């Protein structure tokens, strides 16, 4: 027993924060082979991302510039935050199609509470801190609503969150009376538009959230339970885990993170558009799946979805720089999503 | 002789739609007893034990634990009353490693970040997982192996190790030897004798009568959802039990 534990202690050392969901199989197997296997199998998406960046850079000299890379990073930060929540839902074995509309509603609500001088706003001119807290609570509430009806009542997650998606988009239109609201207080603008040193604030916020939620998923009991529920809900229930509670929490996290995404987006644009965030749910699912989160639930490493987000945003910006017509960009993105899901399905089949 | 049974199920009936899986079944287990539950396929053995483990509510009937009436609404309730079950349709999570499966739903925690929060204590879980597996005496290369990479017998060993390493008063084993080889089955029977010595009661469901006669104190026979016999193992024979299972008399 001692022996087996010791021979794995080398791999233990690279086990930062549980970064080794990298399974180490068999004490006998060659360590080096294991390390290679881990990198190739579990982190291959970073190699793919590198390849895509290389290809795009060779196709246009405008890709590998500081301005463009910063732009990609900034776009990625908002999608990235939303992807964290989507990934958590996928890990728990469910789906959340309502995140895009939650992004839109959150921006609209924030604007309605804070913006002054426009008749469509509330006129309360709320301070950003209470306004942000209200928006975050609404996001959590949306997640609670979705989670309750999916986990407790047993409604289909896809259709339930599709209904929420439509409903919440309508709510965003109601809140802003169908108008665009703009001009936030400067401290609010700082969140999505400011920088900390050379780094955009939004990127710092995204990275902080990734670290926090990676920690929760890999080190906290609730995170482990999310993986178990996604992997085998019957086993989870048989072992005394409250599947309903876990699924509801997953949706609440998703709603919370979508609200953060909405705050960042409205802050960066310094306006709330009624269409903000539409279509983001599919980008979020795509980035999660490209980052290796399985649609079957219970499998995947959250940090890899950063690469998934960067892949999507790189391809999109790259195609724009290459002057590819917008319709073709749409087609390409659809194709990329299709490929990611195909890969996910084949991976399960191969097992 | 008037001992209080640790488990007493009274007039349990269970319907699945039109299917009457159980009809007025009584079932009791006394302290330190190994009870064998036998019957044909579809006789209702798993259903009866899943009711005891809180998986299904009974359609009718009552359950008493150490004389106290209970109403289980989920497996969590049954677990908290010291009932552990090893399921026939193995309840392991394929995407989780061996140690994680042995501690499924009762992960150990330790303080972290200067006592600010609690995190899962993976190291301790791995150490204790080894100990539990040693007791089951089944060779598994690493407790960090994901369960999906294990053989059927190894997966079953993980499920058994989980049940015995939890604090239980009674362990229900539904066909625990189905995927086990000859040697592993022998080890399992030794383990059951060991549990009995440690004052843990066992309900053992199996179609293999020779195993049942090796470890059990009492045999209960179900047929078509009804209890048709309750015999002290030492007072009966395999032939009689076989006849009860097949012909009902
Ligand atoms: N979840 C369920 N839904 C509907 N019917 C069920 C369900 N579970 C069991 N049954 C039915 O109840 C009856 C008893 O099944 P049970 O699984 O308890 O039998 P068993 O004695 O464990 O059989 P085996 O030896 O094959 O494991 C069967 O007719 C079965 O089809
Ligand atoms: Mg059965």
Q: Which terms would index this structure?
A:
heterodimer, A: 351 residues, mainly alpha, ABC transporter involved in vitamin B12 uptake, BtuC, two-stranded antiparallel ribbon, 16 helices, 4 strands, disordered N terminus, B: 249 residues, alpha/beta, Rossmann fold, 2 domains, 6-stranded mixed beta sheet, 4-stranded antiparallel beta sheet, 8 helices, 33% helix, globular, binds adenosine-5'-triphosphate, binds magnesium ion
Please tell me about this protein's structure:
The complex is a heterodimer of chains A (351) and B (249). Chain A has a single domain, classed as ABC transporter involved in vitamin B12 uptake, BtuC (Orthogonal Bundle). In chain A, 71% of the residues lie in helices and 2% in strands. Chain A is built from 16 helices and 4 strands. In chain A, the strands form 2 sheets. Chain A has a two-stranded antiparallel sheet with strand order 1-4. Chain A starts with a helix and ends with a helix. By secondary structure, chain B is an alpha/beta fold. Chain B has 8 helices and 12 strands. Chain B has a 6-stranded mixed sheet with strand order 6-9-10-3-11-12, with helices on both faces. Chain B has a 4-stranded antiparallel sheet with strand order 2-1-4-5, covered by helices on one side. In chain B, a hairpin with a 2-residue loop joins strand 1 and strand 2. In chain B, helix 4 crosses helix 5. Chains A and B meet through helix 11 and helix 12 of A and helix 2, strand 8 and helix 4 of B. Bound molecules: adenosine-5'-triphosphate and magnesium ion (MG). The site of adenosine-5'-triphosphate has 12 residues of chain B, from strand 2 and helix 1. Chain A: GO terms for molecular function: transmembrane transporter activity. Chain A: It is a multi-pass membrane protein.
